[in-house]
Amino acid sequence: MKIEIYIIDKKGKRELYDPLIEHYRKLCRPWAQVEVHELFTKEIAKAQERSPAAAQAAYGAALERYRPGAYNIVLDPEGEALDSHRFAKLLEGHSAIRFYIGGAYGFERDFLRHSDKTVSFGKITLSHKLVKVVLMEQIFRGLTILNNHPYHK
In a 10 Å sphere around its CB, with 0-12 CB exposed, 13-18 middle and 19+ buried, how is residue 58 labelled? Predict the structure, then answer.
């Protein structure tokens, strides 16, 4: 299984977050190859200065080309809240899964509608870097559930 995470975020604070991401990537290796891709283009930066709607459109435009050939899951506050067992079921039966974490203004409704699933980690606001770590932990937890590993218990 290949799992990719695409996040609209400026690269930074690597010394704090990268070791955690790498830790979870290693933990997932028996069951899945996990890759993280951070995107933040000049177009996104300019769009964020113009308006929230322009920013949302720029996020979707930057990510659209990655959608074909995988089961696409978008993280969005209005998405479905899942417990860990239901999250694990999202991973089941797919050879390629892509998760998308939007920028500061979230995603356009059209981007959400054209995804296979929209998931929420709750109504609280978290930094994008922290959401990435939480997602990595849930992916690992989901993989352990699917493979009857004792981590989840």
Answer: buried
Q: What is the pTM of this model?
A: 0.92
* Separation of alpha carbons 56 and 104, rounded Å: 9
Residues 6+ apart with CB under 8 A from 100: 5, 6, 7, 63, 72, 73, 74, 75, 107, 111, 115
90 token code pair:
């999202």
pLDDT at position 39: 92
Site of tokens 């899951």: 73
Reported as a single tens digit per residue, the pLDDT across 107-118 is: 999 999 999 999
Q: Residue 120 carries which side chain, given as an amino acid letter?
A: S
pLDDT greater than 60 at residue 72:
yes
Specify whether the CB–CB gap between 75 and 132 falls below 8 A: no
Q: Which residue has the tokens 């920028």?
A: 103
Helix (H) or strand (E) holding 70: none
